[in-house]
Specification:
The complex is a heterodimer of chains A (260) and B (236).
Chain A (H helix, E strand, L loop, with lengths): L6 H11 L3 H27 L3 H16 L2 H18 L9 H27 L2 H9 L4 H31 L11 H7 L7 H30 L4 H9 L1 H15 L8
Helix pairs in contact in A: 1-9, 2-3, 2-5, 3-5, 4-5, 5-7, 6-7, 7-9, 7-11, 8-9, 10-11
Chain B lengths: L4 H11 L3 H27 L5 H14 L2 H23 L10 H26 L3 H9 L4 H31 L11 H10 L4 H30 L9
Helix pairs in contact in B: 1-9, 2-3, 2-5, 2-7, 3-5, 4-5, 5-7, 6-7, 7-9, 8-9
The chains are: A mainly alpha (260), B mainly alpha (236).
Chain lengths: 260, 236
């Protein structure tokens, strides 16, 4: 410290940090993609109540939701090479970025599996029965009827999760990843203007969050376009409606999943 | 290097000494967060003229940026501000005399306040409008109606979110290492630094956090049962 606030550094660092958005977004994107796969895999045994696997997925979700992401990061960073050595795979040369992505993917997968369960559970049971009544098979009913509706319901929860993952990636610096936060800590070592660097860092995160939120809102409107009245409601009191749906979506997670 | 189960236990015992710090940080920030959150929620619900846009901006900004950046901004910005003010007023007080954990409390409370304001707001909006009208009808003032009628019901409605937020805060205390405060996470690092068994130490830390989270969930479930006992559906 000992340096006085200088606004010009904020702009300077803002521009210098911009290229590192790519790494942050890479972590977010990759972990979300892998997390979606894991989430779906983990949600299925619980939705269909498969005896032993159901227990496993319960413990998995409980562990990853019950421990801090920072602890998980360190756990994977230090633990994975040792575990893999036991089955004679040497990963000491693999960059830390892969471990970070893997840890975030497992973390995200646990949360995603809950939102998938909640969203599928929120689709009206009568919809599935109607699908069966017109002669669809189980897969057809799921793919054509349940999934499109569940997607629309899941979008607000999913959007929150994406933004949460974006904010969580700020912890990757602790394993030496040069993403936005990591860079913002090394940039001002010469000038000692740390506060200005962190201010521009916060601005960048803020802009990305807002952009993501707008994007998901547009996607949600598109997915729910067939529900005319709900859409009109949403526009009338958007803030409050969004909030209600957000929280009711989260509360839904505590109910047991559906058995389509 | 092989997994050393005995060291997990050793680390676990050592980590127990860091629990008070972690719980203190989490407790203080959740309590201050609820206070800030309630104030902000009231400002936003009643649309208080000047404060309303400020409150909205505060919530949006905090929720749109990572908690780590808040901590870093407070850690580097607040001393600058305090020193500048103290110097201009001629007070000999300097920010160096503030312990690091103080900055952690301030920063985490600010973060938690924004998240809590949404929890409080959704809880209050969940209370039926007729309830407050009935309170006015029997002659209560607005503060009375809020305190006696709205808040108890809002608390019951907000409890699941409240506990989620508290658990989130418990997990977020791991960030305190950035301010060199020795919480469970930092303690795990210290414990492992002597013999390089980081995996075992972090496994112990993970188990500890898992246990604490489970405890909070159980307590909330108990509290929820107690608090919702008036709600007997069609029976009443």
């Amino acid at each position: 410290m000992g340096t006085s606030f200088d606004i010009s550094y904020v702009f300077d660092y803002f521009v210098k940090l911009l290229p590192y958005i790519r790494i942050t977004l890479t972590i977010v994107g990759c972990s979300l993609l892998i997390g979606l796969g894991i989430g779906l895999l983990v949600a299925l045994p619980r939705m269909y109540r498969i005896p032993v696997l159901q227990r496993f997925s319960q413990v998995y979700v409980s562990f990853f939701r019950g421990t801090p992401i920072l602890i998980q990061l360190f756990l994977f960073y230090y633990g994975m090479p040792e575990m893999l050595k036991l089955i004679h795979i040497d990963v000491t040369k693999v960059p830390a970025l892969y471990f970070v992505i893997f840890a975030y993917a497992l973390h995200t997968g646990a949360f995603l599996s809950e939102s998938i369960r909640g969203a599928v559970g929120a689709v009206d049971r009568g919809q599935v029965e109607a699908a069966y009544a017109v002669g669809m098979t189980g897969y057809q009913a799921f793919g054509r009827i349940v999934l499109p509706q569940a997607l629309g319901i899941a979008i607000p929860v999913f959007a929150n999760l994406v933004i949460a993952v974006l904010k969580d990636t700020s912890l990757a610096f602790s394993l030496g990843i040069m993403e936005l936060t990591g860079k913002s800590q090394t940039l001002p070592t010469m000038s000692q203007h740390f506060f200005e660097a962190y201010l521009s860092l916060a601005l960048i995160y803020f802009i990305i969050s807002i952009a993501l939120e707008k994007l998901f809102f547009a996607v949600e409107r598109r997915l729910l376009r067939y529900e005319g009245d709900r859409d009109r409601d949403g526009r009338a009191a958007s803030g409050r409606k969004w909030l209600n749906r957000r929280f009711s979506g989260r509360l839904e997670l505590q109910k047991e999943g559906a058995r389509p | 290097m092989k997994l050393d189960p005995a060291f997990i236990w050793t680390a676990f015992i050592e980590l127990l000494s860091a629990i008070p710090t972690t719980l203190e940080i989490a407790g203080v920030s959740v309590l201050c967060g609820i206070l800030i959150g309630t104030a902000v929620a009231l400002v936003r619900i009643y649309r208080v003229p000047v404060l309303h846009p400020i409150a909205s901006a505060y919530v949006t900004f905090i929720r749109g940026t990572p908690m780590l950046t808040h901590l870093l901004l407070i850690l580097f910005g607040l001393p600058m501000l305090i020193d500048a003010v103290a110097e201009s007023l001629g007070i000999p007080f300097r920010s160096v005399s503030i312990p690091m954990i103080g900055f952690v409390y301030i920063s985490f409370s600010i973060t938690e306040g924004a998240y809590m304001s949404e929890v409080v707001r959704s809880g209050m909006l969940a209370v039926n409008r007729g309830q407050i009208e009935a309170a006015y009808a029997v002659g209560m003032t607005t503060p009375q109606a809020l305190r006696r009628i709205v808040f108890p019901q809002a608390f019951a409605a907000a409890l699941p979110n409240l506990s989620n937020s508290a658990i989130g805060m418990l997990h977020a205390t791991t960030l305190a290492f950035a301010a060199s405060v020795v919480d469970i996470n930092a303690k795990a690092q210290i414990v492992a630094a002597t013999n390089w068994k980081f995996f075992e130490a972090y496994l112990a830390a993970a188990l500890l956090f898992w246990g604490l989270t489970f405890l909070i969930e159980r307590l909330t479930a108990l509290l929820e049962k107690r608090i919702n006992s008036y709600n007997r559906g069609g029976v009443a």
